[in-house]
Amino acid sequence: MPYDEFRLKEKIEKLRQKMIEEGLNKGLKNMDTVAYSQKLDQLIYEYQLKM
User: Which segments of the protein form a coiled coil according to its record (predicted)?
Assistant: First the structure.
C-alpha cells in the first residue's frame, strides 16, 4: 500500500473514532456529529478513488 493511501486510511480511522465519540456524547443528530460523518464520507470516497 503506497504511503499516501496508508495516511488516508489512518485519517479515516481517526475521524471515524472522533465521529463515534461525538455521537455518543452529543447524539447522532448533533451538527458536529453530522459534520464528522460528512467529512468521513468524503475521505472514504477519496480512498475508494485511489483503489
Answer: none
